[in-house]
Design brief:
Strand content: 15-25%
Number of domains: 2
Radius of gyration: 22 Å
CATH class of the largest domain: Alpha Beta
Largest sheet: 8 strands, parallel
Strand order of the largest sheet: 12-11-10-9-8-7-6-13
Distance between the termini: 62 Å
CATH architecture of the largest domain: Alpha-Beta Barrel
Structural class: alpha/beta
CATH superfamily of the largest domain: Glycosidases
CATH topology of the largest domain: TIM Barrel
């Protein structure tokens, strides 16, 4: 009976959270486009512009240069802690590039105007390997075009190898049919999102991925995939506007997924080690042959996102520039703190970088306020699912909030109150930080009539009413607190 209840609960979770996080509509001035299971922009013609050289780091501005980490904290090139906010953009329909889906200049301008500093950009193996043979470099060129466009507006890119339901031949998106091995497993053609636990073909495909099974041409599946990771890493190895790589979106534990529900205290720890750790280690090793700069993130199995069990994965490849990306999708708001606490516990245990790369269910204002507040209070940088080109949508408006972009020291508290539009940040001095400036995003669209500042232990060094508020600790002060309220003279 207990297992039956667990399965029923999982059905409800999948039906509730995945449907919301993987489908949405978008609109532009001339047309309305609905793309199933993901993509949501339609503001430009969709013609990919020719790739340019990577944009060099800016000498002025709030952050620039390669992003690293200090323990759980993301850091910029000066060692400041980044509590960066961002948004997802994933084109799950052929030909799988953002620009061909309509994501262009007007979208990027709006994203920049809201203070977002990172876009999690979907890279699909259906685009990298549309047919057997070498990597499709034209697809990488198109990805590079969007990366360069974002860089022009000083927005970082997190390259996300995305999948849902393994691939379009048996699920939604991700791996092409020729890289999908199901053996004799039946394809039940179950619809999204319940296919993970009801379609044996999807479970078998993931199991063959983890087992590194042979393809019909005699190659091992992971050997082929590593060529895709290698080609992308080679292209972006020296691009300072790439935040890093997320190895695989929401992996599924294959045919033994039931074991993940048998003991909530352990979760998928055994499979984390035997399947994910092995895969992540191999991919990390491949990337590092050409790219020593960028962060590498591994995700726990998707069941972690429900908040009922901890993450058992290691730092990918035990690499010094790596960490964990996680999502937050629970059937009950009461479980959201559990997801966050499990993520923080993982980071403190493994000393790895921590980044939330998906949250919310696009269900309206209350969940966005609640979940962003939870992540903000936990001092976790986040990337929202997902961008919508209809900028008047409630979800796009609610994301517009001030936040500490770069902290010269260690952040100790951060909160934004949506009712009063009041932001409070506290931080303390830390050694090894070469830039004394703490930068706070204060979007003018949130404070159209200006803002007032109350600060102790620090001084304002930015221009009045700047959209980025800069502060420095006073001489002799080891900590500071700043409070921002709407209205006033910006001083």
């Amino acid at each position: 009976m207990f297992k039956l209840l667990r399965y029923v609960t999982l059905f409800l979770i999948l039906a509730t959270v995945f449907t919301a996080c993987s489908s949405s509509n978008s609109s532009s001035q001339n047309t309305i486009i609905t793309v199933s299971n993901g993509l949501v922009p339609a503001t430009t013609s969709g013609v990919c512009k020719s790739p340019t050289q990577p944009i060099l780091p800016v000498k002025t501005g709030s952050i620039s240069g390669y992003i690293s980490h200090r323990g759980r904290w993301l850091t910029d090139s000066s060692g400041r802690v980044l509590l960066i906010h961002g948004i997802n953009e994933v084109n799950k329909s052929a030909p799988y590039s953002p620009c061909e889906g309509g994501f262009g200049v007007q979208d990027v301008k709006w994203i920049a105007s809201q203070g977002f500093k990172v876009v999690r950009l979907g890279v699909l193996f259906t685009g990298l390997f549309p047919k057997p043979g070498p990597v499709n470099n034209n697809y990488i060129n198109e990805i590079a075009s969007t990366v360069n466009l974002l860089a022009e507006y000083h927005i970082y890119t997190l390259l996300d190898y995305h999948q849902d339901g393994y691939g379009p031949s048996i699920g939604s998106d991700g791996f092409p049919a020729w890289l999908t091995i199901t053996g004799k497993a039946k394809n039940s053609h179950t619809g999204f999102p319940l296919y993970y636990i009801t379609n044996p073909a999807i479970q078998a495909a993931f199991q063959n991925l983890w087992d590194n099974s042979k393809l019909s041409n005699g190659q091992r599946i992971q050997t082929v995939l590593e060529q895709g990771y290698l080609a992308v890493a080679r292209r972006f190895a020296n691009d300072p506007w790439v935040l890093g790589y997320e190895i695989l979106n929401e992996p599924w534990p294959g045919i033994s997924w039931q074991n993940c529900l048998s003991n909530a205290k352990v979760g998928c720890s055994n499979l984390d080690k035997s399947e994910l750790d092995k895969y992540y280690s191999a991919v990390t090793k491949t990337i590092r042959t050409v790219d020593t700069h960028h962060l590498i993130f591994g995700e726990p199995f998707v069941l972690f996102n429900f908040g009922e069990s901890p993450a058992g994965i290691s730092v990918p490849g035990n690499d010094s520039e790596a960490g964990m990306a996680f999502h937050m999708y629970t059937i009950s708001p009461s479980l959201e703190p559990s997801v966050i606490n499990y993520a923080l516990k993982w980071a403190s245990t493994h000393n790895g970088a921590l980044l939330n790369t998906e949250w919310d269910t696009t269900a309206g204002t209350p969940p966005i306020i609640r979940q962003s507040t939870e992540l903000n209070n936990a001092l976790i940088p986040w990337i929202y699912w997902a961008y919508i080109s209809d900028h008047s949508a409630a979800s796009m408006q609610d994301l517009n909030q001030p936040y500490p972009l770069a902290v010269s020291g260690t952040p100790t508290a951060y909160n934004f109150d949506f009712t009063s539009n009041t932001m409070t940040l506290s931080w303390k001095r830390a050694t090894g930080v070469t830039n004394p400036v703490t930068s706070v995003e204060t979007p003018l669209s949130r404070y159209p009539t200006g803002y007032s500042i109350s600060v102790t232990g620090a001084k304002v060094v930015s221009n009045s009413c700047s959209s980025v508020l800069d502060l420095e600790l006073l001489n002799g002060s080891n900590s500071a607190t700043v409070t921002i309220t709407p209205g006033g003279s910006c001083t």
